[in-house]
Amino acid sequence: MITNGGVPLEEVIAAKSRFVLDGEPVFSERMFLQQLVYTEDVEDVGTREGLRVPFADVERSLRAAVAEYARKRLS
Questions:
Q1: Cα distance between residue 75 and residue 69, in whole Å
Q2: 28-37 burial code (b ≥16 CB/10 A, e <16)
Q3: Of 13, 15, 24, 29, which shows the fewest CB atoms inside 10 Å?
């Protein structure tokens, strides 16, 4: 995912100029980051067979990536 050979969060956000509808930007960095760490309505799939990474680890990884990104942006 983010830490294991995935696309860095900065790279995803940098590509926001590609998300355009009728000439208007449709990517909200703030909303994207909020949605990335919101897991209240996500089914915990940790008990399914074949899952290589526990859901709690995914949550922690996403929260850490967003916190680090925000820290860098606000510094």
A1: 10
A2: eeeeebeebe
A3: 24
> CA distances (Å), 55 to each of 8, 29, 40, 59, in order?
19, 24, 12, 6
Query: pLDDT tens for residues 2-54?
Result: 556 678 889 989 998 899 999 998 999 999 999 999 988 877 665 566 667 77
- Predicted model pTM: 0.73
Contacts with 36 (C-beta within 8 Å, 6 or more apart), sequence order: 62, 65, 66
Beta-carbon contacts of 17 under 8 Å, excluding residues fewer than 6 positions away, are: 25
The token pair that represents 58 in the structure block: 């995914």
